[in-house]
UniProtKB/TrEMBL annotation:
Protein's UniProt name: UDP-sulfoquinovose synthase
Stated family: Belongs to the NAD(P)-dependent epimerase/dehydratase family.
Domain NAD-dependent epimerase/dehydratase: 4-294
The protein's annotated pathway: Bacterial outer membrane biogenesis; LPS O-antigen biosynthesis
InterPro entries associated with the record: Epimerase_deHydtase, NAD(P)-bd_dom_sf
Species annotation: Thalassobacter stenotrophicus DSM 16310
Length: 401
C-alpha cells in the first residue's frame, strides 16, 4: 500500500485513476484547483455526463467502498506554499501529476490561452520538482506526458520509448554511442509545454535524484471504468466540444445525436489511442514500478493501438449509420502521416491492452444517448484555429482564478 497524491485528480483521467488506486488499497489524496470546471463555464461547454461536486464524488466513494479519498483545493502553479506544506505533511511515496491544461485547441485559441497554458503547465511541474527536491523527499513522480512530444512527421520507423540511440564523433573522428531524449516536434503550445516538462524532469532526475516516470500517453477514449460505474456520483467526464473533446469520443457522441462526423482535412492523420480503462491500469503499473534512485527518467509509451482518423470515422459510421463530413482542418498539422509506436514497457509489465472493439464503442454511444438532453450542438464546431483570426478574449488567466 502506498501513500499517493494525485494532482489533477478531479479531471477526466485523474478521477478514475484516483478511484482505481484507492480500490487497489493505496491511500489516495487528490490535489486539484478545479480549473477544468471553471474552463467549462468560460467556454459555455460542459461534460456530457453530469459531474458531481468533488465533495459528493469522494463521499459517494466512501459510501460505496468504505475507502476515504482526501481532497485539497490547491493551485500547484500559483500556490507554491500550499503545495510544499501538503507534501511536507503527507510525505507521499508517489505523486501522480495530471494537473495541466491539456487541450491543444484551447492552447491555440488566443494569446491569453497560450500564456495561461505555458504559465500553468511549466510552473506547476517545476513547483512540484522544486518542492520535492527542497524537502528532500524520496517521492516517485509519475507524470502524464503525451505522444505529441514526438511529433507526427511520419518518419517510417517505430517511435522508441523516450530515448534515441545516437552515434557521435569526437574531434579525432572516434565514434561513441549515447542515448538522447527523442528530439521533440510539438504541434501546439500545449504539446510544447509537455516537451518542456521533459527537460525539467531530465534535470531534476540527474541533479536531485528524483525518481521520475514520464508516461507518453496517446489519445484517450471512452468514459467509464469499473470504479466510475459503481455510483451515479462517480461518473467520469465526457467532453465532446471543439476544444476538449478528443476525436474518437467526439465521433461517438456525434453518431449518437445524428451529427455528421467531423473529419479534419483528408483524415489522413494517424494517432495513437488508449481506452480510459487502460489509462488507469497503466498508471497503477507505473506506481508499482518506480525507477531506481539516481536513474534517468523512465519514459514509457502509454498507448495500445494506432489508427488513421478517417478509418475511425468509417468504423463509427459502419457501426452507427452516421454520415461523414470532411471539414476544413482548423489545425496546422501534416495532412497524412504514418505512426508506429513501441509500447513494450507496459506489455512487459503485464498490460493486456483493451483494443477498439464494437462493444466498447457501442457502450460509449449508449452513454452519449443516455445524456442526450445535455448535448449542445453549438459546442461541436472546432473554433480554435492554429493561424489566422483567433477566437477573441474568451479566456483570461484572471477569469480562471
Ligand atoms: P483534464 O483537464 O480533464 O484534467 C486535468 C485536471 O488538472 C483538472 O481537473 C484541472 O482542474 C487540474 N489542474 C489543471 N491545472 C492545475 C493546477 N495548476 N493546479 C491544480 N490542478 C490543476 O485533463 P485529462 O484529460 O484528465 O488529462 C490529464 C493529463 O493527462 C494531462 O496532463 C494531459 O496532458 C494528459 N493526457 C491526456 C490525454 C487525453 O486524451 N485526455 C492524452 C494524453 C495525455
Ligand atoms: N480531429 C478530427 N476531427 C475532430 C477532432 C479532431 O479530425 O472533430 C483530428 C485532429 O485534427 C487531430 C486528431 O484528430 O489530427 C487528434 O485530435 P484530438 O483532439 O483527439 O487529440 P489532440 O489534440 O492531439 O489531444 C489529445 C488530448 C491531449 C493529449 C493528446 C495525445 O487532448 O491532452 O496529449 O490527445 S496525442 O495526440 O497522442 O499527443
Amino acid at each position: 500500500m502506498k501513500n499517493v497524491v494525485i494532482i489533477g485528480g478531479d479531471g477526466f483521467c485523474g478521477w478514475p485513476t484516483a478511484l482505481h488506486l484507492s480500490a487497489q488499497g493505496h491511500r489516495v489524496a487528490i490535489v486539484d484547483n478545479l480549473s477544468r470546471r471553471k474552463i467549462d463555464r468560460e467556454l459555455g461547454a460542459s461534460s456530457l455526463t453530469p459531474i458531481a461536486h468533488i465533495s459528493e464524488r469522494v463521499q459517494a466513494w466512501k459510501e460505496v467502498t468504505g475507502n476515504r479519498i482526501d481532497f485539497f483545493q490547491i493551485d500547484v502553479a500559483r500556490d507554491y506554499g500550499a503545495l510544499e506544506d501538503l507534501l511536507a505533511m503527507l510525505k507521499p511515496d508517489t505523486v501522480v501529476h495530471f494537473g495541466e491544461q491539456r487541450a491543444a485547441p484551447y492552447s491555440m485559441r488566443n494569446v491569453s490561452a497560450k500564456r495561461y497554458t505555458v504559465d500553468n503547465n511549466i510552473r506547476g511541474t517545476h513547483n512540484l520538482m522544486a518542492a520535492i527536491a527542497g524537502l528532500e523527499l524520496d517521492t516517485h513522480v509519475v507524470h502524464l506526458g503525451t505522444m505529441g512530444v514526438y511529433g507526427y512527421a511520419g518518419e517510417g520507423f517505430t517511435i522508441p520509448e523516450g530515448y534515441l540511440p545516437v552515434k557521435v564523433a569526437n574531434d579525432e573522428g572516434q565514434w561513441s554511442e549515447r542515448e538522447i531524449l527523442y528530439p521533440t516536434n510539438p504541434g501546439s503550445v500545449y504539446h510544447m509545454t509537455k516537451s518542456m516538462d521533459q527537460l525539467l524532469f531530465q534535470f531534476y532526475a540527474r541533479n536531485d535524484e528524483i525518481r521520475i516516470t514520464d508516461l507518453h500517453q496517446g489519445i484517450v477514449w471512452g468514459t467509464q471504468t469499473d470504479e466510475t460505474r459503481l455510483h451515479p456520483a462517480l461518473i467520469n467526464r465526457f467532453d465532446y466540444d471543439g476544444d476538449y473533446g478528443t476525436v474518437l469520443n467526439r465521433f461517438l457522441m456525434q453518431a449518437a445525436v445524428g451529427h455528421p462526423l467531423t473529419v479534419h482535412g483528408t483524415g489522413g492523420q494517424t494517432r495513437a489511442f488508449i481506452h480510459i480503462r487502460d489509462t488507469v491500469r497503466c498508471v497503477a503499473l507505473a506506481v508499482a514500478h518506480p525507477p531506481q534512485k539516481g536513474a534517468p527518467v523512465k519514459i514509457m509509451n502509454q498507448v495500445t493501438e494506432q489508427h488513421r482518423v478517417r478509418d475511425l470515422a468509417h468504423l463509427v459510421a459502419d457501426l452507427t449509420g452516421a454520415q461523414i463530413a470532411m471539414v476544413d482542418n482548423p489545425r496546422k498539422e501534416a495532412a497524412e502521416n504514418d505512426l508506429v509506436v513501441c509500447n513494450d514497457s507496459f506489455l512487459k509489465l503485464g498490460l493486456n491492452p483493451t483494443t477498439l472493439r464494437e462493444g466498447l464503442m457501442a457502450e460509449t454511444v449508449e452513454i452519449a444517448q443516455k445524456y442526450l438532453h445535455r448535448f449542445d450542438v453549438d459546442a461541436v464546431p472546432c473554433v480554435s484555429t492554429w493561424t489566422g483570426q483567433q477566437k477573441a478574449g474568451i479566456v483570461t488567466e484572471e477569469a480562471l482564478h
